[in-house]
Amino acid sequence: MISRLAAAGWVLLVSAVLIATPLAVRERLPDPMATHWTFGLVPDGAATFGEFLVVSMPVWVVTCAALIAAGAYGRGRARRVHRASWWGLLVGVGTLAMGVNLSTLAANLDVPDWRSALLPGWHLAAVLGCAAVAGTVAGYLGRGEPGEPDIPPPAPPRLRLEPGRQTVWVGHARNTTTVMVGLVVLAFFAVLAFLSTLDTDDDVGMYLSFLPAVAVGTLVVLVTMSLTVRVGGDRVVIGFGPFGWPRRRIRLETVESAWAEELRATEVGGWGFRGLPGRATIMVRGGECLVLRYRSGGRLAISVDDAAHGASLVNALIAERVNP
Amino acid sequence: MLLTLDLNDVRPLHEQVAGALRRAIGEGSYQPGDRLPPAREIAGALGINPNTVLRALRGLRDEGLLEFRRGRGVSVTGRADGRALLVQRARELLDEARRYGYGRDDLFRILEELP
């Protein structure tokens, strides 16, 4: 409750500063006023007072709307890292918006014409620095109690293994969107290769300078478009991409237990390979994930279909081989 | 998908693999339209030749359980054929009965006694 009041108070305070300060010093501003500066801190863009008021608000409004939506509907509030980033963003972006606003007004104060509104260099550093510090402090203060979800579900799924039988589990996951992106990148690559054979124009040479980036992009797409997880014998093997390479092998001796969990990209920090301390995630798509809990304490989540069966086999193999 | 092979089974390996795949699909972990893991990975997990797995997959395609599509891999088309699944369960039941010293006729009798 207190945290909600604090958040609401902060939102109102920032909004009030964004609206009230320009109105308070309106008489001392040129019209139009400078609103954009080159890297040399010389003004190169101007707007009327009304435009300035309207344009300075959207970043703050959008941030507030997104954070309120995440706070109301997101499932991440139970996690510490989410609360910390929620508060960090709210206070950091608010400070940034206020800083930009105040610095713009200060530069425009009492100048005869917008072209003479020079921006002092330290403003930029001060605004960014204040926003970073305020966001970090707020994130630290708002982190709350440690999150609950590190505790596995009460009964990890088990499977009965019969003697004289070999049981393995193979799971697969792929992201169709990534595959499409990969195809587009490859098509681009092919067109470039074709063009470069047609003529030796400078333009083509310029395009070809993108080649390394395209090659790296293709590689990243190939590795993250799909994955396969195998459980059997004494290890879990994760193969990336359509060729199952590179591979990552995890010995079952190092695993304490496994379970299946529904995870979304917003909860783990995005798609791809995520490495929050002790909470690594390999996510090619949202949804069903196989979660391995290491004896050393950390956990690894891998997005893969049919994860419940995989988890039950991991638990059965651990029970059979590691604690006979 | 969870695949189990009986190490004492004397049937050809591709038949055993087909049986394991049929059971995994029949148990509902894969719905119609779902894609199977690549054959190479299934073979790697079981420690057998990929061609054996491919032969099993082709058999299941002919049964109407799977569908092969170029570039899209192998996907499930329908539910496992009821009869094929029953034959497989019956075979396993018979094996288990023999382990406890019962024969085919004993199983018939047990089936008749069921309501």
From TrEMBL, chain A:
Keyword terms: Membrane, Transmembrane, Transmembrane helix
Protein name per the record: DUF1648 domain-containing protein
Transmembrane segments: 50-74, 86-109, 121-141, 179-198, 204-225
Automatic annotation (TrEMBL), chain B:
Source organism of this protein record: Nonomuraea maritima
Segments crossing the lipid bilayer: none
Protein name: GntR family transcriptional regulator
MF term (GO), any: DNA binding
UniProt keyword list: DNA-binding, Transcription, Transcription regulation
Domain HTH gntR-type: 11-79
Entry-linked SMART domains: HTH_GNTR (SM00345)
Keyword Transport: no
One Pfam family, short name: GntR
InterPro entries with a match to the protein in the record: Tscrpt_reg_HTH_GntR, WH-like_DNA-bd_sf, WH_DNA-bd_sf
